[in-house]
Inverse folding.
């Protein structure tokens, strides 16, 4: 009783002939995304370091977005979430999306608070 897996990625733009080819295709994609992250972390282009959106550097936003892309493809293809029933997919994916957005919001609020404390020297710490 076999189950046919979908042999495409990027919403059908890239199609493969076997599961092994698909695994290697996703692996190469994840390696490229990781290489982009590493290169950006080493080079740190000036326009990405000094530009800001919602009080966070563009470079940090790029790292967050690329990490989410990698997490999506790991879950979707390597954990075979694509082949599961819709209810299970939604339960897993949307829970993760909600928790990641919640974590980002908490990190932004805390980072802004700490930045204001150090910037204005509003509170002296007595440790």
């Amino acid at each position: 009783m076999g189950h046919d897996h979908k042999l495409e990625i990027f919403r059908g733009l890239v199609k493969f002939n076997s599961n092994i080819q698909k695994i290697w295709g996703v692996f190469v994609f994840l390696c490229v995304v990781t290489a982009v992250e590493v290169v950006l972390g080493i080079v740190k282009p000036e326009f990405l370091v000094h530009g800001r959106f919602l009080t966070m550097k563009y470079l940090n936003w790029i790292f967050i977005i690329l990490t989410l892309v990698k997490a999506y493809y790991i879950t979707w293809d390597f954990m075979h979430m694509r082949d599961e029933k819709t209810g299970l997919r939604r339960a897993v994916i949307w829970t993760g999306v909600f928790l990641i957005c919640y974590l980002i919001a908490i990190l932004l609020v805390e980072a802004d608070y700490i930045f204001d404390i150090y910037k204005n020297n509003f509170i002296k710490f007595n440790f």
In short: The longest strand covers residues 8-9. The mean pLDDT is 81.
